[in-house]
## 1
Amino acid sequence: MPSALADVEWDACVLEPRRDRELEAYVRRGLGVVPSSVAYFTPVPWVVHAMTAMSSAGSPMLHVDSVLADLVGLVVSQDNSCRYCFGVQRLMLRVHGVADARIAQLEQGFLDAEIDPHAKSALDFARRLSRAAPLVSASDTEALRASGWNAPAIRELAFHSVFNVFMNRLMTIAAIPFAPVESLADFWPIRIVAPVMRIAMRRRERRALARASQLPQERARGPWAYLVGALDGLSAARALRETLDAALASQALPKRAKALIFAVVARGLDEPLAVREAGELLAECGLTPDRADSILTHLGSRDLDPIENALVPFARGTIRGRPLQLQQRTRALLELLSPEQLIEAVAVSALANAVTRLGVVTQV
Amino acid sequence: MALAWGIALGVAGAGAVFAGLWLRARRSNALARTRLAAASAELERLEHAFARFAPMELVERVIASGVPTGGERKEVTVLFADLVGFTPLAESVDPSTLVRILNGYFERMSRAITAHQGHISTLIGDGILALFGAIETNPWQTDDAVRAALAMRAELAAYNAELASEGLPKLALGVGVHRGTGIAGLVGSPELMQFTIVGTVVTVAARVQTLTREHGVDILVTADVQRALDPRFALRALPPNMLKGISEPVSTFALLPD
């Protein structure tokens, strides 16, 4: 059955895969398998850690069941035209035993597919959160409450949705090859081994839930504390804190360049909390509010170095757009950035798009 | 005995009729499901396609509950482009060549505009009305519009080289860019409706475009654009002009080469 995204244009990948046994072992412990995409990000380990830690396997969910989580992944990936992630979600739904006809129905007509109101409200919310046109607001969370979602469940759903935004951006901006995943999703023996895979997944989920621990109060502090704090009680809080800290501590790109990426995305989406947070980060990096504002107003400045001057408009391009456009902009950075810098630029842009859209958790 | 056979045959006949009806209903249900799936898929594709011409939220609203009649006040940047000397050109080449030249022109201009986050609202003859910041909130709308104008200039230069190689006349462009508040909404008749901006902001952009001939330049921006624009763009101030339908004189700036 051809993928619903079969017509989406996709450029050749700009990154070279590089295997790293230690990181692969980490991913296998978390996810049970090592996705083909991992090898493209190993030069910057925090990216691989984030892919695993923020996933539903790394941050086990208490309120959103695994089939619904994969449905969220399916509709968000479809909306973002991410062929890689869409293939993964189709594969996961088959592993969960969802019939091909049902998957086709969901792919082809989410608007009219027969979905129970509880799940449909979640899928609607996830899609609106991902689109951010406009940003989701309290009225969207009210609609969820009316369908029976409570506050912690909404926060978990929001986190899972933006995790998909993160993965979609990561795979799309870097043009990670989707063929291995797409062909696996359509490989018929998957249906035969699916029951065994389900048992293994359930076991892993139970172990992950047993291992999951609350983030100590003092660790909630730091950049984006308002988001980490709002996720209190969910394993997502720890995953987000660790990912943000690791992203900012990484040395591939200077901290100021990364802060600029966060600030551009926050301004582009007009999310006041993220704008304030990124502004504080820029101030820590020595940019006064006036200078920062001048850079962000015109997406560049003579004061910035060539890498920053390239990354600022690049970050803006990641907010919306079709895959091929995004991928061509990434290719244009190849002359200026090392592979490690390019991976970090892609991953920080993906993370900025995720955390900026996550602001709604403070309104639940 | 005969009665038993009769009953058996009757039951078998009724069973066959029932089975036939059931199979027919099943086939008809399957067909209906296939059609529904195809229609849903088409709807999904249309929703995505239309999101390039109108805000996604508006598209969703149209699908869910029909065409909304209200408008919304929005800060936008309007770019109005027109071919200079189009009428003599139209009279000097045959109709099929003219259409080919025009289509090539629109294709290149459209590429320049969409590459800079703009969208073409209307084509009026050889004129183009493009909007920036109308579909999605865009804090960089003015820089985008001016970058689009520069890209249009570059695209036209490349296109003119192609036309010259075929012995065809060159095209010349006039562009006016203005920023202001307009009313965004679905405008038109039930037969033809489009998402656009209406208001003085569009009128000023169109009138400023006509000033390009008077000042002998190809791209003019208003003072409202100049104030919002990245200072790295090179501009040359021109004397203010009175524009038809506008009470105050309008200051304009010529956009110099990149």
## 2
Amino acid sequence: MIRLEPRGQQSKLMAWVSPLLAALLMLASGAILFLALGRDPVEGLYTLLILPVQDLYGISELSVKAAPILLCAVGLAVVFRAKIWNIGAEGQLLMGALGGGYVALKLIDAQGFWVLPAVLFGGIMSGMLWAMLAAWLKTAFNANEILTTIMLNYIALNLLIYAVHGPLKDPDGYNFPESAIFSYDATLPILIEGTRTHIGMAFALFGVVVVWVLLSRSFLGFQIKVLGLDQSAARLAGFREKHLVWISLGISGAFAGLAGVSEVAGPIGQLVPQISPGYGYAAIIVAFLGRLHPVGILLATLLMALIYMGGELAQINLGLPVALTGLFQGMLLFYLLACDVLINYRIRFGRSLPLTTTQGER
Amino acid sequence: MSNQIPRLRLSGITKTYPGCIANDGVSLSLEAGEIHALLGENGAGKSTLMKIIYGVIKPDKGELFWDGVPIEISSPAEARRNGIGMVFQHFSLFETLSITENIALALGDEAGDLDRLASRIKEVSQHYGMALNPDRDVHTLSVGERQRVEIVRCLIQPISLLILDEPTSVLTPQEVDALFVTLRQLANDGCTILFISHKLNEVKALCHNATILREGRVTGNCDPQIESTTRIAGMMVGEDTPLSTEYPKVQGAEIALEISDLNLRSDEPFGTNLKHLNLQVRSGEILGIAGVAGNGQEEFLAALSGETPLNQAKIIQFNGNDISRFRPDQRRRLGVGFVPEERLGRGAIPEMSLTENALLTGYDMPLKTAGMINFSACRSFARKIVSSFKVRCSGIESEAQSLSGGNLQKFIIGREVLQSPKLLIAAHPTWGVDVGAATAIHKSLIELRNQGAAILVISEDIDELFLICDRLGAICHGQLSPFKPTLETDISEIGRWMAGDFATEVA
Amino acid sequence: MDIDLVTNILYAMVRTGTPLLLVALGEMVCEKSGVLNLGQEGMMLMGAVAGFVAALLSGSLVIGFLLAIVAGVLMSALFAILALGLTANQVATGLALTIFGTGLSAFIGADYVGHPIDGLEPILIPLLFEIPIIGRMLFAQDLMVYLSFVIFIAIYAFFRWSRPGLIVKAVGENPDAANAIGLPVLKTRFLAILFGGAMAGLAGGYLSLAYTPLWAENMSAGRGWIALALVVFASWKTERVLLGAWLFGLASILHLVIQGLGYRVSPNLLAMLPYVATIVVLVILSSNSARSKLVAPVSLGKPFHVSK
């Protein structure tokens, strides 16, 4: 008989083993899936994991995919620590793209070093304000943030589609739903010549450091963690709950907004209806997989970006639907949640019981 | 009686949890019509043992005999089929449902037609002198009434063993007397009663027989009417534990905390509104407020701590400052400390280390500079708490949830006391902790008082309040009784105040 | 506004509200037992794709609907194993279910996008459907709409009069007490989750087999999430779920109404209406915190672990 037995204390080791286990289980399931679809599992996993990053070009493409995911996920690490369920990184990313794109289009004829910062600022602010909308709804009206942020995602997407069909449509664009292409000065510089690796990846790595300092060293981060672990303790300790909600959602939205504007001012170069293949949702998985820790998130981001690239290659090389990516993402999160049981429980076979000292009942 | 086959006999019951043996070879025998006490302090394994009898928990080892026949009770439903009923310490009632619905749920399919059940409830409750209106929703009932529902729920079916887990801890002294009348009547009708308690005087007043548990083992068996209190207490806590001390009562100095006409509407669904509260706590005295849970204590504490903001001025004044509109951190900065009721949760974050829990309220010691945490200061503060309050733990990096209740409570009290508060507000400071820790906590409160701090203690434990407080009062239905020096009042007067009868005896 | 327009609006309102009603009723039962399953969207999508593929391959709508239900139940069982069996966080598990369902449904349905099938036909109930204004709304719908009426009445009666209904409520309010008096907490919650899955699957099937008889990626378009808001809107009361679902149905077809009345507004802006309406409703319903605490199942979303 297999039983779960409470450990009493959380296992620090298992907290980090569990994501690895989950990734392995995902790959094992992937191999079985390839087999079931009549493909060679070795070739399938090779296409998914190795093929995308076997040359410099591949690695640079990985960074292009990783930058927006990493930005969204480090932001989510902050709100999720406060147990505020911001499911709206996708919408905040889209609003960042739309807001930043709006500035870029207004400045399309402007020149100078200040243009790009203005565009980025527009993006960051748009993402932040979009997230703070949810903070306002939560603090002023007690509206559940899961539902409001999801709804704001749908609204943001429709706003973007409306914008590229209407007010921000390129007048010389043959009626395609796209904006004009941004000017050179409003575009992110390339970091490595001959690739698409742009400065957004540097922003993301900087974000990792900032969030690490915030969560591990600052009193603000401590307050955010306390709020997430026990609201009533935070209240009794005199931490200002509403402020913390505003701040943590604002931080998360700002990062997602930066991710969005970095996409349109980076690899895309203009506003289009399809800006994100679900980066904001993938970031949720990444945040959990990385244990809400900036370094863990960095590693999880690389895996997630790889799955995105692998999914595209699997479509080209193996003729599988690109939706493979979403399937793997879902499996990954499921396995993670299942493996996480090992943090609080150990698995026992049979009815053996350890005998130790007597303690209080509580 | 002794020749009879006992109604229930336990033999060698053992139950182990990771890190703790709750019951270790416990044997016990109960006769028909007997009121049997199961005595022991918190954590002795009483609750585990009766949950085993009631089929909630399975023992690892040992046997149960019902009327001499070995049985295995695998669920509460099976226990009830055998005629075993149980009244839990934390009531197992559903607030949004009516009394009839609550009882119907526990009875299972035998509940039958709800109207007929309702009239049965009325009948049974009247027979045993516990009037109840079966149509009322549980959330409208007082704690005492809820306990009656629990008891009536057991009596609706034929019953031969009734287990009560610390039934008096939620009652006023007068309600306790009424409960004892009911229990004696039941025992006379032939029902066996297993009465779980840690209060010696009650056991002596009610029970025919007592079994004493300590650290999961039976340490004695006696007739409490005959055996001396000291002997029984020795069996409960071990011979080497010093028993309760007396503390000298004092008069306070100048007024530290003054509350003038505090009115507050609760926004909790089943909360209590506070009405015209007036109160003064002086420096160098301990003021105690007795009361049955749910009479406004939580709301009052939240108003005192600043968790519930007040929007009027001059309601709460502290050392000449009007702190009515202050947030908890602002009040803390003026020298107010808090010990909340829930130690895991409000008082300490279960998943955080003791170091981090020291920072939780000690941040203005200061344990931070320019927004950054000073970890070495946090660690040395945590170490100081652990050493000066003898907190037993495996180090300051262990999680709060790994500590036993008594040790965690010592840590929380220590964290507040070492910040040298001018006013300490403590809710149920020794609730659920062992005698050793309780004594240590009481001593530290007295010491803090002697250093000139004002202390306000809210507790459900009258004995504790009489032990440590210099002045006493009670709260009932969100209203405060008058306050009297402890030496000029007695248990029966405080008991009447707890029941809402605020008339004072002419001294 | 002429009578024909009103009649048509009411007809479309009920038709559009039906998938919302089905999924919201299922989620309400689940939440009453104390379980918050945010995976509605994922279960609906799986129901939609499974139902569509099954109906296309078998040529039978009945088999299609059955498979839709089975898919929803299987998905919810996955949730139940994680959230009940392994006491995983319900919010995270529900999200995982939605992400997984979105991915898997897109994967399965990739080859079937754009295939047309013959959807469910309306059945006119003789005489009754000729009643002015409400005749078409209530008596000229397809079988699934009528079934949604039946399920609605059954759930209403379940909570109003039945003992199992009382048990579900008790388990949702205080699982520890329920366990102490011997009610089967985990079994009750497990069944409630499966019921929620069946209803979400059925709702998904309704989308791909009746409402718009085809499969498209993400075709539930947030209805699973709106249903979650609807349960809050309805304060966990069956009759208010019906009202809410129909009102949201109305919000979703408002663009048709506005266009029907001859106004020209961007369809992309009008498409936001149901989502904006959801937020507005949440704001109105949640702002009185005392009230919302009173109506929500007390233990909603909190895991329960039996110590034996």
## 3
Amino acid sequence: MVQIIERKTWDAIVVGSGITGGWAAKELTEKGLETLVLEAGPPVVPERDYSEHTPPWQMPYRGLRDRKHQAERQPVQSRAAACDEWSGKFFVDDIDNPYSIGDGGQEFLWIRARIVGGRSLLWGRQSYRWSDLDFGANARDGYGTDWPIRYRDLAPWYDRVESFVGIAGQPENMPQLPDGKFLPPIAQSCMEEKVREGLDRAFGGTRRFTPARVAVLTKHHLGRRACHYCGICRRGCISRSYFSSLNATLPAAEATGRLTVRPNSVVRNLVYDERTDRVSGVHLIDGESMESIEVRGRIVFLCASTIESARILLNSKTPRFAEGLANSSGQVGRNLMDHIFQVGANGNLDGLEDKTTFGRRPNSCYLPRFVNLDGDRAEATREKSFLRGFGYQCGARRGTLWQGGIGQPGFGADYKASLRGLAPWRLNFSGFGENLPNPDNRVTIDPDLEDRWGIPAARITMSYGENEEAMRESIQTRAAEMLEALGAKNIRTFNRNSLPGFAIHEMGTARMGRNPATSVLNGWCQSWDVPNLFVTDGAAMASSACQNPSLTYMALTARACDYAVRRMRRLEL
Amino acid sequence: MASIDPIGRRRALQVIGGAAALPLLPEELFGNAHLAHVHLHRQETAGEPAPLAVLSEGQARTLDAIAERILPATDTPGAGDAEIPALVDRLLAGWLPDAARDHLLAELDRFDARARERQPEAAGFVDLAESAQDRLLAEAQDEALAERGGRGFSRNPNRLHEQPFFDLVKWLTLFGYYTSEAGMKSELGYRIVPGRWDPCVDLEEA
């Protein structure tokens, strides 16, 4: 039970300091609210903890990772590429942070970072707007429930977020991938320019090979420095060139003088006051002292990440909300989605043998969705075997020869000379596909499992279905046909059947909607049931689209903050 | 149930370490890769080399000599400058499964024994002339090829004890050299902070 109740009542409490918690902190403090941010994990100090300039030869295992430690403490986290010898410390300890898999579900990989800044320190930084092809998808085919908003509602908030974040990107004037407020793009390699021209020619401009839009600065921006192309963003960024809470939004919030960040604050549940029908605060366990503490606030923003936010709501049972707070619809925890990926094709391209690139860019290229489009393109782009669509993260690069050296016989000076230089250009298309909302894919509470802080753990039950299966086939076929059109050689398709969760784009467990009976949140990310409660992380999403979702989470958060503060000022919360 | 003051009291610590440090990096720093390198990386391993935890001095010398014959110094440094024994010693102490560790250590000793068979006055592989070293390695390579049949090398830690000695040492040498300061900087032209992105340069330039 709660041991300590802190006396102060905060204007706002934000649960989580990741990409949405950071935005909530910035927007709410800038609008004058005394804001407390609760973060489950420890602080990160860039000067101490970032390691992007620590070369392999200064690491004990030269990048082979602390294998035994990971096998013992991070068997799930270490499946993620970013959880390497440098950045493994940013990921959770799987033994302290257990979860279980529900009957009939596939293995689910829940990749987490409980640190100040959360997964914004580790994200892929790809930043794409969604369009009405996405916001109208549920209404069009009947899966899930209709989004309560359309692109026009979010467009100004994309503008606002992008203007602060700094997105390198190239306008393409494609309705399915709206242009944004871009900094100069990171130029495509000479081979990629040829690929762009070749695809435009072969497919009449319908398959556009564009520089990936990334939250990395190509020029100085709001006190943060331009990228210096060291190339390993996930280990940190001492020049603050890539966007993270720690690099940008939390410092902006702190500059207002109204921000308090409380690290090592593991949220157990939200506290609900039956008399006022409002959330009155948050019950947390101090991660170090294990004290049980209640903090009080006038509004609460839940930004703990999709599965964690659902877990907190489901762990916040009250007499009125016996199935979990804000859950009169029964939809909390349901409709969990991720993106299918690790599927596509690649091949070698002849030419430009005497050319390469200099520097290590923080992005590559992107090929926006071209199937199942809407409007007057609907007929021409319709796929018979699946609904919705996919895009590709892609690029052409030359590998080093030494990496294949173990397969080459020999040793000595000639052998060493033969490993010098670069392999031919290889073009890779890696698909990211939309996942249909399905109420049976869900997060519940495991009655028999608790984490290190005694908090009941999540049980995740999720499987991909026939639509995703059919899409995986098409992703490979379509990639291979582009490679063929470009005259690529040694074309290989791949499908590693990525497990749910592994794209780390999980979303949907507290969906927005138009009807309180079938959705958890209204069009402002506000709980239908509890008006001073907002959920603005991936949980709010009503469908998954195929674009990377973080930019949309940020725009939704900024929009929800504006709405919440306006309502507060009118004394309506 | 105690009631106390808000949290701020105990958290004077710089939670957002980044904020105060923004102006800390001079503009020109990133124009100079060397300076940035010196300034930025935090895990300087300068000082005395750590004592060996698993390898004997003799085994370390043998390993160093084999590595240098596999990737010798040419117009760039060889694997003898890549601190391969120190790396392998760390892998033996904390990374390799027991079976792979036992396999590697036993085979290293066996390899030295074979060197002594060729040249009884030699203490081990290091005392052979380079040409004799290369002959012994060529034999080991042939044996590895025969032992493997058509199979390729497996990097899976749990399969490393099944890999022929020559292949195992060759893999450790390749990995160790191309992740060493000598190998990355001289042979691969690696710069920690390139400072710019150029989408099209001549191969020579890179």
## 4
Amino acid sequence: MSLKKTDRKADIQILDGNQAAAQGTKLSRVQVIAAYPITPQTPLTETLSEFVERGELSAEYVAVESEHSALTVCNSASMAGARTFTATSAHGLAYMHEVLHWTAGARLPVVLACVNRAMGAPWSILNDQQDSISQRDTGWIQIYARNNQEILDSVIQAYKIAETAYVPVMVCYDGFILSHAEMPVDVPSQEDVDRFLPPYQPHTILDPANPKNYNLVTLANPRVNTEGVLCHGYMELRYLLQEALQNSRETIIKVGQEFGELFGRGYANMLWEDRLDDADIVIVAMGSLAMEAIVAAGMLREEGHRVGILGLRVFRPFPKADVMKALKKSRLIVVFDKNISYGSEGATCSEIKSALYGSDVNAVIRNFIVGLGGRDVKARELAEAVNKSLPSLKEGTLSNEYPEWICYI
Amino acid sequence: MGTRDCQHICDESSPGIGEAGRTGEWRNARPVIDQKKCTPARQNKPACFLCWLYCPDAVISKTIPVQINLEYCKGCGICSQVCPVQAITIVNEEEFVLNRTD
Amino acid sequence: MKTNAVNLTEIEYLLPGNRACPGCALSLAYRHILKALEGQVIVTVPASCLTVLHGMYPVTSVNVPCVNTPFASTGASATGLVAGLKALGKKGLTVLAFAGDGGTHDIGIQALSGAAERQSDFIYICYDNEGYMNTGNQRSSSTPLGAISGTTPVLGKQQNQKDMTAIMEAHGIPYVATASASYPLDLYEKVRKAKAIKGTRFIHIFTPCPPGWGFSFSDTIKIGELAVKTGWVVLYEVEDGIFRLTSASESIARRGNLRPLREYLREQGRFKNITEEQINELQDWVNARWKRYLGRSTSL
């Protein structure tokens, strides 16, 4: 399907990240919203309730009493055939952890906005990506936005991706850094979004005339149904989820392509590549950090280094092939993680190393943990970390070190 | 032989009798109705039917005479307990084994 | 015309050959609940005996649409179904949340309370077998004082159960009732009544469990009747704040012939170690509660 480019003039509004997400949700004609307030997501939830109460968005807004209930409401409403939305951060996301597994296993196209925030203990309301990274095993597609335009655009695309693949999608954006920072955002028209996003076609039937029972106990082995057809065991159903995630790359790119054709902003990529053509040093970052990294790369280029940026857009499914291709010329890869898998290393770094398995990329990979609990990350600090890594590039030894932390310890 | 042919992408179960197999095999004893005592049988019209009302497994029919589906009856004996005219006795399954030589 | 066994519909929504234990009171109650709702229902069920009764993929033993949901979330799942149906403009279906005492009194109480406060339009039925029976009888907050369970195996439970029906009544919802599998026609009438009311409706059904409580599975109905005759279970409904005893409890109130509680306790293996002191405590508790109910009954 090729969509005719909109002839509408750009409608640039100054929006913070939460407002951008709210606009994306409204334009997607969401039908059921269930969210529990948590800093720094709260203004998003409040804006949505205002849209509903003013009659600007025709949706059921459920003021749930917890995040666990929020996602459950979305799941059941989605079962009934409605397009649903929830949003949360940190402990709220952790509270709905078991339900995240359920959404994915039930193959429900729920879209969740995760406003990235640090996990306690100790308490922090400020940004890092530990919350969404901790949920990477649950079977959700995870997309990270670098700026507020991407937030709005990603929410709309998320519905098309989710409803095509029947896999839930998490749109992640940095708390406070994006959620509360105002940027110019081109807000699409409802008419154009309607052309892009058709109504939801559920795969579930809740009809007494054709009764089905969803997500019953499933045995380890396949079992024959009443018509003698061999049906899945637990493992086969879960295989299908993994298969759907693997195949979703195609959908993500196609949807991104279509979005670009209609709205003029292309997303036909799993990664944001910046100046990789001639780079032998690559900085890897995700979310708003990927924007900061562009400034750092600029500084390093002035010092004579050939530095490029690999901004991870989609973390799940992890774009192994795309990463391998993008990094083929690299000899030093510096991965900045706003998270850590305790006892090991930053999650992005592990994924990068795993993506390079079997390639002939012979690069030194260094991992830096940055920005936890809202610690400000300056472009020059990123540049300094790269400079610090240059000796290991000279030596060329690949080591299995634990990550280095940029902090005051 | 793969399971893709079922075309399910999620756990979607359809209704069927005997999901747990022939649950009649669970029992040690079965209910036997004495139609001479049973009220609807005697009156030859719909009446009583308390055994039907109280059967947890819906294996009793509101017919005249009242019938019990022995393929699925678990032999709980509730029907015998609730029958107001004691028309139902619980009889050991041994009594119904074929080829008894005693 | 009053419903009886003769005129009650023959249509069955619960199919034979299912995984319920012989003599399962839940199974009996479920049959009649679905008849009362005429099968025009979407059921949502958490982890519980009912999950297993419903069968295992790809075959289910129930002829109505059903959505399974994580243990703590029944109230939210029902809310979600209601919201989804409303958003899609689908009318005429009852959403039925059906959970055990574990999923209602304990792990599920928060979601249920939230749903009731939001006045979410569904019927919530708790089937109470006074323990986590699906997993082999571990204690719940509905397990009585003195009862042996998997997690109170030697000393028996040291606290009496909490009054979940009173908790739900305190939410100010339009309909709250108790019922029993041993009185299926009373249960049927209450579900019929609830069906026609808008808002959150709560029905608490007493469902004796033969393997969990230690009695013969042919005695399920008898045990349930004894519970009512001794006042352990009181059949009542509160409609828009008006309290009314029903069925056998109403008769007992008029005749004043409540039986001593020990006649009920001694029939069950789970009370084999109960002390005299505990029996007296329970009897006092039953008496005080019965007195309160008599005081609230304006029609006697």
